[in-house]
Design a protein that fits this description.
The chain is mainly beta. It has one domain: Immunoglobulin-like. It contains one helix and seven strands, in the order E-E-E-E-E-E-E-H. This is Transcription factor tfiiic, tau55-like protein, putative.
Amino acid sequence: MEANATSNDEDEYVLLDLDGVYGLIDIPPNANYVLKGLDTLNPILIIDDKFKLIGEYEETIGTCIAFSEQHAPVVHKETGPSETNLFSGTRLIDSSQPPTKQVEPVCQLHKVLKFKLSPDSAIQCRTDEEAS
């Protein structure tokens, strides 16, 4: 019997690191962006047609894993036999407890793409004008 399996070995995940521009620009939560040239040495990220950022790849050291976070209710499972326990073997959701966060691995990363402001970015010009 031959299995028709698909492989995700060709997929490559990259982490976009914006720490280099943190505090210099204000990026709205739902900002539009264009990411160009992922296959080049210096990809370009344009945010809201205002900010131009230049990226540079860095290889990760060791294992770098990205996780997904999900909210889940607190669940108690009744396991022991009891004459008074009518819900033996069932799961009960405890509404008095705040939901917990569950994390699951999504992918393994091999590269981090660190961004900095482009010299011809509009925000760079504004920062220079404010300093003088």
